[in-house]
Amino acid sequence: MPNSPVACLSAFLVVSLLALPSNAQNRSTEQEEAGITDQTAECQPYDYPPVDAAIGNFPVNWATATILPNDIAAAAKYQSIVGLIPNIAPKGTQPGSLDGVFDGSYNDTDPDCWWTSTGCTIPKHPGIPADIITTPEPSSLGYGFDDGPNCSHNAFYDYLWQKNQKATMYYIGSNVMDYPLEAQRALKDGHEICVHTWSHHYMTALTNEQLFAEFWYAIKLVVGVTPTCWRPPYGDIDDRVRAVAQAMGLRSILWTYDSEDWSEGDAGVTPASIDANYQGLISAAENGTFATAGTIMLTHELNNFTMSEAMKFHDQLGTVFKYLVPVGVALNVTQPYVESGYSLPTFQQYISGITMSNGSSSSSGSGNGQTPAGSSGSNPSSSNGQGSSSNKSAGSRSAVSSGGVSIALLGVIATVLVRLSGL
Ligand SMILES: *[C@@H]1O[C@H](CO)[C@@H](O)[C@H](O)[C@H]1NC(C)=O
Ligand SMILES: *[C@@H]1O[C@H](CO)[C@@H](O)[C@H](O)[C@H]1NC(C)=O
Ligand SMILES: *[C@@H]1O[C@H](CO)[C@@H](O)[C@H](O)[C@H]1NC(C)=O
Ligand SMILES: *[C@@H]1O[C@H](CO)[C@@H](O)[C@H](O)[C@H]1NC(C)=O
Ligand SMILES: *[C@@H]1O[C@H](CO)[C@@H](O)[C@H](O)[C@H]1NC(C)=O
Ligand SMILES: *[C@@H]1O[C@H](CO)[C@@H](O)[C@H](O)[C@H]1NC(C)=O
Ligand SMILES: *[C@@H]1O[C@H](CO)[C@@H](O)[C@H](O)[C@H]1NC(C)=O
Ligand SMILES: *[C@@H]1O[C@H](CO)[C@@H](O)[C@H](O)[C@H]1NC(C)=O
Fold this sequence. Notes:
9% strand; alpha/beta; binds 2-acetamido-2-deoxy-beta-D-glucopyranose; three-stranded parallel sheet; 17 helices
């Protein structure tokens, strides 16, 4: 074995380079990627030139995001919102709290409406909207999945496509950077994309600037759209985090029911216990719990088990709930992205069978990746003009009828990630 770190790294690179051609299938488009059925091949790394070209304009994958030194647009946007952020200190002992290590000194009266401490979802500070934890329409389930895009999600997305089922996908920016074509598939298939931060850390533990950057660098580069919704990793949100999200035009979406599907395989957690969690939601639906308003359950696109569970229970959920819809559809959010040329169906349209989204999105910028999140966080009504110009490529999955979704596959990959960052 090599005995120096450099030698190890070199050996690793050589092995990687040699291994890649034998297993990897070429893919340069969303369609090519979506056609891969071998899950090992799906998860092989691949190059996507727009990401390669822009990589220097984004934080390191899976590292806590900060505003990059030369990102003038991000710095200006941050300065414009800083006055809106309540004076609440980051929680926990740094940096351990990035992984959920909190110090226990938090005030029992929950002055910050800290979900992780008390489950609070109705802000204590003025002017901040409550978290979305239910859906307004009777017998509706806000259907969606955290932590994607998963490299091996084609079987699951094929299933959703066959069922004409759309969902809200809460994408992690770093996953979008790794798997840009998979992220593009969500948009192409008509799912709604929300941001699940850049690096999936506990948001209440971050500084204001880190929080901002976790949203800013999320998704648009890859998918060409800037989301207007996000979900906090671990549900870890307080009024400071909410305020930053609001200032960046992001609705905060949590949940009421938790499948805990991610924990399968942990000590004492079996597939049967996750089944029981799904069954609890089904029982509640059966006894009329959602007769006047619907709900949201936390589920994941995390691994084979979580996606298999989703498929296993899809039809049953569709029987006990009248409507399984993306959260944006449940809320009649017809303009789900900052970019105006893309629409989600209304709730009424969706339940009458018009499930496909329409529109086009353009990649931000000129393809050089600069100011990827440029306008992103911005209030949808105050468009920054980014995203409106340039290359639109119409693509439609061959089976898609209707107007066809057009997606900018070009330049900007990262935007999808964050503007939740968005991914
Ligand atoms: C990969 O596919 C693209 C277009 O589909 C093609 O231009 C390129 O030459 C292919 N690369 C390899 C290594 O096969
Ligand atoms: C906890 O919060 C309450 C209400 O905001 C405040 O009156 C009290 O002084 C706080 N206690 C501590 C130990 O900070
Ligand atoms: C996706 O799912 C597979 C198992 O199906 C898992 O091995 C992998 O780590 C997951 N994560 C990502 C980012 O694709
Ligand atoms: C309905 O079922 C749920 C889940 O089993 C239970 O928690 C709830 O109390 C039930 N409500 C009624 C009105 O029976
Ligand atoms: C889970 O893995 C099995 C075996 O590799 C595969 O056949 C199946 O399609 C996978 N399920 C999902 C949802 O990806
Ligand atoms: C959605 O729009 C329909 C039709 O206008 C309306 O009946 C329904 O109340 C709306 N739902 C929400 C949550 O706004
Ligand atoms: C999308 O366009 C098709 C064809 O023009 C139309 O029938 C459908 O209602 C549109 N869907 C939405 C959500 O606007
Ligand atoms: C649009 O795409 C074409 C072809 O890929 C490219 O040459 C051109 O530079 C792009 N324009 C912009 C504004 O990105």
